[in-house]
């Protein structure tokens, strides 16, 4: 499901509501956390779709954010302690894009020693998180009004928009809205619509059609020879007339090895 998460709700709140909808015994998850103050697109996965979580999480993201200039926040967002500095970032210089080194905020969901970083930070423990490499393909100033500036940002998974804004200087994210995850757009969000798994996978991965004995083997996790002229990719979806069978990796010798199955074992 494509959900437009409102401000004030956690991603867990949205998953819990979906779990009540689908009933006990149905596994439910999501494909990328949104902070409580943030709004926008959240992909909710139910049943066998949760097996493909990492493929949806790996999709690039798009955001629109409103930054408050001349202020700082201990969390990088409105939920922290804010302080007025009056020092305005220079927005006339080129905004950083490309491959960047970024340190996740101390108030983030990254795990440190089995605990979330934000839990440690709120308990008064100093948290030093390792830098990571991210990619920002778009960082554009859309407009400015006083101490507010609106930006459009497109980036790889794992990028922290709060850090991008904080790195500009004295600024923090006042508002944050996720507008896209890969090919999925916020305009398509509808809490009443359940997108079939086959359609969702076909939007992000190449699909290789199989049938007969090849489909049976794939359903049991057995490697099969790639059909002639089959689409290629780091991973592909194997599917027949009944829908997706498995996600498979190309291996030596021109074979496809199922790594995630969707049929009952």
Automatic annotation (TrEMBL):
It holds the Pfam family TruB_N. Residues 73-100 are annotated as: Disordered. The keyword Ubl conjugation does not apply. Its EC number is 5.4.99.25. It comes from the Bacteria. The active site is at residue 35. Keywords: Isomerase, tRNA processing. Responsible for synthesis of pseudouridine from uracil-55 in the psi GC loop of transfer RNAs. This is tRNA pseudouridine synthase B. It comes from Capillimicrobium parvum.
């Amino acid at each position: 499901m494509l959900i437009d998460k409102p401000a004030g709700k956690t991603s867990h709140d949205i998953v819990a509501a979906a779990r009540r909808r689908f009933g006990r015994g149905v596994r439910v998850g999501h494909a990328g956390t949104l902070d409580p103050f943030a709004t926008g697109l959240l992909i909710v996965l139910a049943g066998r779709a949760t097996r493909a979580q990492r493929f949806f999480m790996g999709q690039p993201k798009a955001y629109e954010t409103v930054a408050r200039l001349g202020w700082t926040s201990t969390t990088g967002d409105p939920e922290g302690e804010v302080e007025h500095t009056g020092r305005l970032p220079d927005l006339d210089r080129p905004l950083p894009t490309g491959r960047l080194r970024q340190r996740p905020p101390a108030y983030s969901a990254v795990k440190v020693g089995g605990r979330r970083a934000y839990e440690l930070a709120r308990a008064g423990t100093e948290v030093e998180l390792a830098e990571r490499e991210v990619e920002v393909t778009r960082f554009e100033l859309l407009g400015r009004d006083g101490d507010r500036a609106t930006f459009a940002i497109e980036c790889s998974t794992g990028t922290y928009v709060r850090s991008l804004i904080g790195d500009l200087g004295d600024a923090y994210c006042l508002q944050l809205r996720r507008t896209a995850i890969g090919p999925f757009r916020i305009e398509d969000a509808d809490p009443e619509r359940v997108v079939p798994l086959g359609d969702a996978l076909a939007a992000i991965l190449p699909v290789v059609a199989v049938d007969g004995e090849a489909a049976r083997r794939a359903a049991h996790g057995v490697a099969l020879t790639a059909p002639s002229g089959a689409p290629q990719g780091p991973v592909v979806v194997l599917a027949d007339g009944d829908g997706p069978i498995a996600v498979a990796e190309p291996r030596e010798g021109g074979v496809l090895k199922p790594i995630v199955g969707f049929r009952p074992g």
